[in-house]
User: Fold this.
Amino acid sequence: MNRKIMTSVGTAAVAALALTGCGGGDSSSGSSDAEQADGGVSISLAGWDFASTPEFQTLADAYHEQNPDVTVELKEYPAGNDYDTALTADLAAGTAPDVFIVKNLKNYVTFEEGGTLLDISDVAGELDPATGGLSSMAVDGKTYAVPYRQDSWLLYYNKALFDEAGVDYPDGSWTWDDYADAAATLTDGIDKKDVYGAYLHGWQSTVQGFALAQSGASLDGGDFSYLAPYYERQLAMQDDGSQPSYATVTTNELAYQSQFGTQKAAMVTMGSWYIGTLVAEQASGDADTFEWGLAPAPQADESTTGMDNTPVTFGDPTTMGINAGIDESKVAAAKDFLKFAAGPDGAAALAEIGITPALIDDTVADTVFGLDGVPQDDLSRFAYTTHETLPENPVGPNTAAIQTILGDLHSAVMSESDPVDDAIADAQERVANEVG
Amino acid sequence: MATSVVDDHDSGALGLPHPVQPPRRRPRASLKLRNALVGWTFVLPNFAGFAVLTLIPVFLLFYYSMTSWNIFGNADWVGLENYSRLIGDKSFHVALGNTFYYAAFHIPLTIAASLGLALLLNQKLRGAAFFRTVAFFPYITSIVAIAVVWNMLFSPEYGPINQFIGTFVGGELPGWTVSKDWAMPAVIIVGTWRYMGYYMLLFLAGLQTVPAELHEAARIDGAGVWQRFWNVTLPCLRPTMFFVTVMVTIESFKVFDLILVMTEGGPGQSTLVLSQYIWQKGFEQFELGYASSVAVVLFLICIAVTVVQFLYNKRRDA
Assistant:
């Protein structure tokens, strides 16, 4: 009766497989033990790539120090765009952590409309109104996530290359036309092959972020003509050779860190996160050692230039929200953690590791400019502390879809496949046809 | 298909003697059942994984394509609304057109290149094994590395490809991956280069089954190289050719990773293909219901093309 034995063995094996397969899923969520043995509370926080992104651990530690009875446990997700995908899957399955980072502002509405975010208007109400990006988080008068970090885009310039070309340093009065003129003079003045006056990275933000913020247009207004002057200027700069062409930047995967850091470009516009990177790379030798400075981003016209005005720039806040599925007993602790992270104490902790918090006060500025290698001139400090930063991805239901279309516009225009006006007309037609 | 189940009644037709006494029904049935059970038990572990990870999601796909699901909350039934939206969606039309553009060139080019390589490397020449390995390399190389290197080769200003072309022709050189007109040809070239080694291997295996006697007979009859290829090699390769055609076709309709890492669908929408459009709608804009309907269309295209190929092959078989 060999067959019989085989059949029963086989069936048993399958049953065992099925049972173990089913049993594996339950134990992993791990967030249900709200009450710890010592009576403290534990809340979980979603972040990404802890090895190279220390901000989550920093906030968790700093908070635990102030509130020893609350422990913030970190749950690591993949970095890059995979963070949103993995977190979304966990949110849909109901296994996401208590507090999570809304990494990309364009998905904020998706999370909010999906009912995954708790209404935390009370937390937002207690924060300093000067917290960068806070006001843009309101949806129908309610806030579901608060910014703890906000990078703003600035102009970085290489003082050595400016000296070499005999060009005056930026003085805070620059419009984009001044910037383009300086780039051309610098390119001519620096007598080295493959060294350019400016570098424009391949991202659509590098053109569209400034255009949206400085023109005062609205992203979902259906009219993209505000982009035209910004693109015309960048195309002219790429044509006259004052910056590497988009084709070269994308096909050779040029990195802004190496272009500016190894003195291939005298100027670059980039987010304030690059301050910490540049300081670290100069210290490690990955970047050349040279004197550099910060200036406000070039402006559309003279109405916002000069150190007695507030320059307009862009940058998306990175925000934190509470999972709507959080255990009732942990809501108070989670809200308190958010208040801490977005408040002055969290800001001070973040500044110490070189991260630009959403709330920039004197303590933060002193900490950042106290780091070795950060430029000490007045304009650099002014540029870092004074700006009106508007979001690149204003909160709205159609932002993600519109940005996809504008991304296509960017590659079509910058590769000089389509003339600016045609590409804008095409994008407007697509938005009317496909969005909302 | 050619094989068919031979049941009890056919045994006479196959020339087997009828059993003198028909066996009693009962033990026979239980033996059959037991055999089936044993078979099922062996298949089940694999089938369970297939069902959970592939089969059920495919059925769910059809359901989701008729909902407005955005990953969170309920999937609300909208009937054929997603499909009527597809009809007016210009980006979908662009993606569909680009997918056919890619397939129309990628399929014949890959078959020609891999068959040519196979014929070449089927010769008894020194180092054939080495060259076979070389031709197979692209297939096992990481797609991201391929994209980075090819993008540099295609770089319009500094890339070696344009510098090489520039020594022969003057005037404006192709912009390759950063030009609306040339991005698709560039992707097709890389796609063909990447897959030809793999299909070459299949053709090489097929070539081993071509009887040498047929070639010899043809040669004695005075057939030239071309005639022998056309009348001996190709007909003998037909089963392999059929398999390769089906595989290349499906592979080119669902092309995704290569496009994503080389051009991200750009410049503009010049290399946007269906599977990337599905990804864009589903995982960037969280319109999973709508993305599902695009996926259903892609699925139907693949099925339709495969069925046509099957029918064609069957007619030739008869």
In short: Residues 25-64 of chain B form the longest helix (40 residues). Residues 88-317 of chain B form a domain with the MetI-like fold fold (CATH 1.10.3720.10). Chain B has one domain: 88-317. Chain B touches chain A at residues 34, 37-38, 41-42, 44-45, 48, 70-73, 88-91, 148, 151-152, 154-159, 175-181, 264-270, 272, 280, 283-286 (CB under 8 Å).
